[in-house]
Structures are given as C-alpha cells and as structure tokens.
Amino acid sequence: MTITKEIEIEPDLLNKISEIAKDENKTEDKTLNEALEIGVKIMKKESFFRELERKGAKIANKDTYNPNYDKEGKNAGFIKNIKPFDAVKLIRDVREGR
User: Pseudo-torsion of CA 54, 59, 60, 63, nearest 10°?
Assistant: First the structure.
C-alpha cells in the first residue's frame, strides 16, 4: 500500500539521498523509505531506553542491545534487589534444581 503525501525536505538532505540512491542503483523513493524505516527504528529504540532509565533500570550494553518491542511488554520485567547476590551461584542452583 502506498500513501502519497507532500512534505518539505531540506535540499541538502534530498541531495544526499539522491547520491546514496545513485551509488546503490536504487530509486530515490526506495532509498528515502529505507532511511525513514531505519530512523523510526532508532527513534523507537531511544525512546525505549529513555523509558527504562526513567524507571531506574541500567543497561550496560546500550550500543549493542536490540530489544524486541513486540515481546517487551509481555515477557520483560525488572527486578530490584536490595542486597547483593552471587549470580553464578544462583544460576548453578537453578540448573541443579535447588
């Protein structure tokens, strides 16, 4: 499904999109749609991290973490633990059924 809408794009940005399209032998429309899709994913990921930080969560691998937004609400949860624990011992206990 294609929706046509008139929007204003900065001339410099449009020139860069044209250059990319020529380099990759693609149409400008296809290149622009791909760029918009990538931009939306990045913005969605950044808003996801902002929401996590607002809730007090810390993510060490922010640059490489790629969340699955469809499952995020259903399966993800964050546990706040007051006292420190040994994660290795906890995993061994779980694996051994203790």
Answer: -90
